[in-house]
Design a protein that fits this description.
Length: about 170
């Protein structure tokens, strides 16, 4: 009987791990395209990895042409942060996930980087009042325009942005 339970437990673990996935996304940010259209010379790139088992996100973002002192002051000093993911559905734009300003941001000679590991999706969604579950978030990434926006003092609606897509 014990051997049967051990076999069933191993099978359950295998099935669970077979459904878990690391999903990779990327974005190229600029001020030339929708939704920012600011013609800013700043640029950026982002790589996002979502672990569906742990329901966490890892992110590496590199921004050139924007300095810390240019980031939207009112957002940089809030839980939302000056950079976040927005979901665009026609005229309806909703905030999905913040990238709070803090230790994950590092200033570089050309701009800044953000490196986040094991960011709990549920905590991020709760911060901005998003009611999307992790499964709905992943589905939205596949079906809706999701943009990473960087907000600055000069462009409160976002100086640069890039659509998040699977490479």
């Amino acid at each position: 009987m014990t051997k049967m339970f051990a076999t069933l437990a191993a099978l359950a673990a295998f099935i669970t791990s077979a459904h878990a996935a690391e999903l990779r996304y990327s974005a190229t940010l600029s001020g030339a395209d929708y939704p920012s259209q600011t013609n800013s010379a700043a640029t950026g790139s982002a790589t996002l990895t979502i672990d569906t088992e742990t329901q966490t996100l890892d992110a590496v973002v590199t921004i050139t042409g924007i300095r810390f002192d240019q980031l939207a002051e009112h957002l940089a000093h809030s839980q939302v942060g000056p950079m976040h993911l927005h979901r665009y559905q026609g005229d309806d734009v909703t905030l999905i996930m913040p990238f709070p300003f803090g230790a994950t941001y590092a200033e570089t000679p050309a701009g800044f980087t953000v490196t986040i590991t094991d960011y709990a999706y549920a905590d991020a969604a709760a911060t901005v009042g998003s009611d999307l579950t992790i499964d709905e978030f992943v589905a939205a990434l596949a079906n809706d325009p999701i943009y990473l926006n960087v907000h600055t003092n000069a462009f409160a609606d976002g100086e640069i942005a890039g659509r998040v897509t699977q490479p």
